[in-house]
Amino acid sequence: MFSFTESPRLTEFEREVLPHLNAAYSLARFLMRNDQDAEDVVQEAALRAFRFFESFRGENSRAWFLRIVRNTCSGWRSRTLATRMDPFDEALHSAEAPDPEMLLLESDHATLIASALRTLPDPFHQVLVLREIEGLSYRELADVIGIPIGTVMSRLSRARRALRRALTGSKHVRGSARERSREEDAEPVLAG
Description:
Layout: H1 8-16, H2 21-32, H3 35-51, H4 61-81, H5 90-93, H6 100-107, H7 109-119, H8 122-133, H9 138-145, H10 149-168, H11 177-186
Helix pairs in contact: 2-3, 2-4, 3-4, 4-9, 8-10, 9-10
């Protein structure tokens, strides 16, 4: 009698894909911005990966699986976006003074970065999470997102610039030292 657990396909799947479940969850959590949805997405992505494991050609299994997770997140968000409302946040709508401990937690750098990341458009958010948090190479990013490597580099540059703007809260972040020097030289000198 055939046992599913002794299947060579299952063994291969476990060896190639399961080591990347933590990275998949981390990516899903950042893309979904919700722990419960991230768990559901990773479960659905793992099922899809197993169902279509024959299409895996032995290339980078991490990039292959994370691409499935990314695509599952996109589908999941588009399906649930119309039916979901933002939950009421008592802290935002409270007339009471904020708790000092809560203020300290909110000032933490990780909180600030996470907040700034949430303001970015999805393409920027995805490329930054995959590169800076998941540590994917440019080649892996190109494979996961499905775009040319040159586009990865330019999107990553624009995403970093947008994140800097979001972190500083300004509409324009001044560029390199050379650009700042040119701007200062171009400013008119007030004669007294």
